Amino acid sequence: MSREASIASATQYFDSGQFKTDLARRVAIPTESQNKDRLDALHQYINEEMIPCFAEMGFKTEILYYDGLDLPFLYAERIEDENLITVLGYGHGDVIRGLDDEWADGLSPWKMTEKNGFWYGRGTVDNKGQHQINLAGLKAVLDTRGKLGFNAKYLIEMGEERGSPGLREICREHKEKLKADLLIASDGPRLNADRPTIFLGSRGGVTFDLIIDAREGGHHSGNWGGALSNPAVQLAHALASLVGPTGQVRLPELVPATLPDAVRNALKDCKIDGGIDGPEIDPNWGEPGLSTEERVFGWCSLEILAMEAGNPRTPVNAIPPRAWARLQLRFVVGVDPLNVVPAVRKHLERQGLSMVKVELSREEIFDATRLDPEDPWVSWALKSLEKSTGKKPALLPNLGGSLPNDCFSDILGLRTIWVPHSYPGCSQHAPNEHMPVAIAREGLGMMAGLYWDLGEADAGKA
Q1: Per residue in 169-182, is it b (16+ CB within 10 Å) or e — as a string?
Q2: Which residue among 41, 250, 299, 331 has the highest number of C-beta atoms inside a 10 angstrom radius?
């Protein structure tokens, strides 16, 4: 009975081919939560895959619902001793739309295919493969030690790709049931493919629309040019007043007052690398005076996701009656998401652009969260990963993307530690989503080691 034996048990599960078989079976279930016709698949994943998996490890399970929603939440728990620490795990079994027709030849979102050291399939990294790695790590400890040595709770949701509707309400309603000492979960990418990574929260996300409805129908640009306002011109000025030509956010209410020293210090050791297929970084884009890593993980970005005026595919000689743009603010701790839309409205009015309507494009807002990088649990987790891999892990104060981490940090009051099992070039949310085989195998060993260490007397001590 040893830490090394637990890691060996996890890697044997991988080397035997059983991990691949289990993941392929789960990928084949088309759990598209954004597709109302896939509701049966969401329940199938919970009932046929997750419940038996937890039952095999001695967990009690319960399916939870929030009033008015048909999305299931699976709660599982294994309580070994009320005096032991309790760890909450999280994952989501739903996936983004498959986009079946857009995958490369020979690939399908619902049939896992191995090619050039990658496993292709929808959910391989987001998030079926990631929580499968963690559950296998738990089982390896149980098989080796005969017990976990700590209490474990787990929450699997089936609506994360829809903005996690109901998750906050479930956490509030079942706060006592979900009570724990910390969260350990996996989602999102590593800093790069080769370096184990820990992140402590996530940037938040607010998506909103700018809309100008000037009049009914277009009017001939020759007959009316100079007499009628052009919504496309007005929209261009509105956008330029919010984001500078090098990507700097121009509205103070949409950025934090400062970059904390603890965040800056953690990011000194980090370097963004998208791999061979990743895009080339634009070094002068974003907030001046910050490194690329500080801009992504410590600051805010305001992105224009789409915009339209007139008929882009077939332009005609007419002043467009309407213009529209969808923007997304990725924000960090220190920015109030509820103030974003009001602040933008007031700003545009000051600019003489009161004709621009500002509306939220989705009700769900992911809040920004960040555990203190100097928390003792952070040092403990970094040491555990380094002991298992022989590599110095990267520490990111928060993920650049958005996760419902505020449910755990703010509502449940937990320390949150995320150990991702993916990499920036994984094509998450796009065709050809894939997991590097090497990351899957290394991740199994890391999590077996991490869960083993949670059962030791000095767990959580720096």
Answers
A1: ebbeebeeebebbb
A2: 331
